[in-house]
Amino acid sequence: MAKLPVRKFPDPVLREKCGPVETFDSELFQLLDDMAETMYAENGIGLAAPQVGVSQQITVIDVGEENPNLLEFINPQIVARDGNTPSEEGCLSIPEYRDTIKRSERVTVRALDRTGSTFEVEADDLFAICLQHEIDHLNGVLFIDHLSPLKRALFKKWLKKRGPYEE
Question: The whole model's pTM is what?
């Protein structure tokens, strides 16, 4: 396994709509393993493929604070959502910035695992929020896109003052 560099805003790959995974082979398995290692090394709870420069519908998630449980989602789709809750979010691709946005409280996600088998998961709380955040990445959407116009203007001001991210 290898830790991969995390792409930082405004890297254009973060704005791409990712293509579906069609081949389940050793390259995919290596990418999944490398993404997990990268997520853990960066102290994240989720990581999407575009964040490591790969424009494919892949994400890894582990929200288990006491019971770590790595989950891999390939070609994930939200098939049901319910409720609405404020969510304070941050992103490995936008370090040092956090803000509150609205997310669905509960989601049902259908995806493929590393063998190509379909599975469904019902999620709530932090798990639901993380799934929505990571699936947004696969569609070129960042959590800052959910900010109100005022908060977006404040983010731009913060970013200008902060300066560009170092590689």
Answer: 0.95
